[in-house]
Amino acid sequence: MGLTESLADYFDVHKHGSSVGTEIIAGITTFLTMSYIVVVNPSILAENPDIPGLDGIAITGYTFGEVQSMLAVVTIVAAAIATLVMAFYANRPFAQAPGLGLNAFFAFTVVGALGIPWQTALAAVFVEGLLFIALTAVGAREAIIKIFPQPVKMAVGTGIGLFLTIIGLQAMGIVVDDTATLITLGNLASNPVAVVSIVGLFVTFALYAADIPGSIILGIVFTTALGWGLTTFGFVSPEAELVAGSSPATYDVTPLVGAFVSGFGNVEAFSFALIVFTFFFVDFFDTAGTLVGVGQVAGFLDENGDLPDIDKPLMADAVGTTAGAMIGTSTVTTYIESATGVEEGGRTGLTALVVALLFLASLALVPLATAVPLYASHIALVVIGVVMLQNVVDIDWDDITNTIPAGMTILVMPFTYSIAYGIAAGIISYPLVKVAAGDYDDISAGQWVLAFLFVVYFVVRTSGMLQAQV
Q: Hey, where are the domains in the chain?
């Protein structure tokens, strides 16, 4: 029996109506559409000394570029580990990597706004990863996800899309702070970063619309090259910062691997429990929303909006999150781009295996990650954010008891810069509007419990209790 036949038999390829060739093409397609994370994740997690307020991982004795290259390596390894588990355990065509939105929560909220040391943040991710493994093993995560209100399930993807979009637009100089209106349009014509970003963004949109594989990474490369060319040939001053600072790349990730262990000693027990509690809620429901969003785009959901046999993909996510924290990156999750491979015909874990192998091969390209400026890498956030808006059509907007929780979920995420707040707002509002409308039978006991727990979450997160303890 040859390799092709062995792979087909192991992954039950023919049983799922696919072929080895189709699965390979699907895996290549998925990898190309999500490979931008190798560049984007380090740009979000690494603390940039030139941009005040963008906190993250900073390592004494190492430059920003060196930290970026370390994070690129651990991003690749974490993605490969999680996706291999998805391939061999779950046998699903889903690919995983450190999640957009979750990495922003790690850097901007936990490390930045709360002032938590990044080592402690990694320790919190590690602990919630272990909790997820335990909850998934007993079926608790699947049970909780199934009691998600239907309109909230369908709204999460769109809310995350808006959240990612505003992060990207800020990094590109298109959206800026305003004392009167909080945000406003930047001075685009006088800002070279904004001009180059806009050109790169629309080139990327065009490539994406033309269904060109790897359109996002091609857009990032084009934008980086455009900024470099304008600076090199004297059209724009070097002070415009269109070119990323040159820093040596490094494959030595020892300062990150195991750093979570020291994080356990940075805070006392109650404070750490509150941090884990916060991470737990964000990660749990963000991961659930992303999985449902991927299933929604791929057409895998059943008539109730649930993903069949979701426990195995959840276990891959839990293992990936735990392993990722151990080597130095934020929470790992399933990528919405997995749907592109599904659309190419991928139906089994063989697709995921191809993605994992391509991630490992991309280790050779780590030095290039430090050459990509922030504005170019964040084009990916805007493109993916806009694409994720298409999920909004699956919400029953004619029913006001669906409109309110769905609308709250979508709007609160970007306006509060928090995925968890958006999900919380949707889940809390759902039973309230159902009771007001007299639809008592539409509310389960579990949904009341979720609503109560999220009220507790709001109290913990907004009362100053967490900040007072750290």
A: 3-244+268-469
